[in-house]
């Protein structure tokens, strides 16, 4: 299985093996935006951690779900705008003439 095809549960299991998640150090979640038949993008989302980190954490993220018309090119952008110990911001958008109905992102933050 390629690393890029792993879902968040597998990634959490792998990191748990080295004690980060099980020790309560990492946090994870998802951001889902969906509005069919409209294209609600671009969207900026601020995610607040359940427990603030002592320092700025490393944030990893990936696309979990994408919904677009079957007869058009699909281009999506996800960008990490900033990271602070208590929260971070993502920008989810489409590129050029792409209409996106939905876009989902999974994330994990670790010290």
**Strands of the biggest beta sheet: in what spatial order?**
1-6-3
Question: What is the CATH topology descriptor?
Answer: Immunoglobulin-like
Give the DSSP E fraction (strand runs of 2 or more residues): 35-45%
Q: What is the number of domains?
A: 1
- Residue share in helix: under 10%
GO biological process, one term: cell adhesion
GO molecular function, one term: carbohydrate binding
InterPro entries: H-type_lectin_dom_sf, H-type_lectin_domain
Pfam families: H_lectin
Compact description:
The chain is mainly beta. Helix content is 9%, strand content 44%. The chain has one helix at 8-17; strands at residues 27-34, 43-48, 58-67, 76-83, 87-94, 102-110.
Please give a structural write-up.
The chain has a single domain, classed as Immunoglobulin-like (Sandwich). 9% of the residues lie in helices and 44% in strands. It has one helix at 8-17; strands spanning 27-34, 43-48, 58-67, 76-83, 87-94, 102-110. A 3-stranded antiparallel sheet has the order 1-6-3, with no helix packed on it. Strand 4 and strand 5 form a beta hairpin. The longest helix has 10 residues, at 8-17. The relative contact order is 0.31.
List keywords for this structure.
Immunoglobulin-like, three-stranded antiparallel beta sheet, 1 helix, 6 strands, H-type_lectin_dom_sf, signal, carbohydrate binding, H-type_lectin_domain
Write the layout of secondary structure elements.
Layout lengths: L7 H10 L9 E8 L8 E6 L9 E10 L8 E8 L3 E8 L7 E9 L1
Antiparallel strand pairs: 1-6, 2-5, 3-6, 4-5
């Amino acid at each position: 299985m390629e690393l890029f095809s792993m879902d968040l549960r597998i990634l959490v299991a792998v990191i748990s093996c080295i004690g980060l998640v099980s020790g309560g150090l990492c946090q994870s979640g998802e951001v889902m935006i969906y509005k069919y038949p409209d294209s609600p993008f671009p969207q900026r989302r601020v995610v607040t951690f359940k427990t603030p980190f002592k320092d700025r954490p490393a944030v990893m993220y990936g696309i979990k779900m994408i919904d677009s018309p079957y007869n058009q090119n699909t281009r999506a952008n996800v960008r990490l705008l900033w990271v602070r110990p208590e929260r971070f911001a993502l920008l989810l958008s489409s590129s050029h003439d792409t209409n996106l109905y939905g876009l989902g992102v999974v994330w994990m933050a670790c010290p």
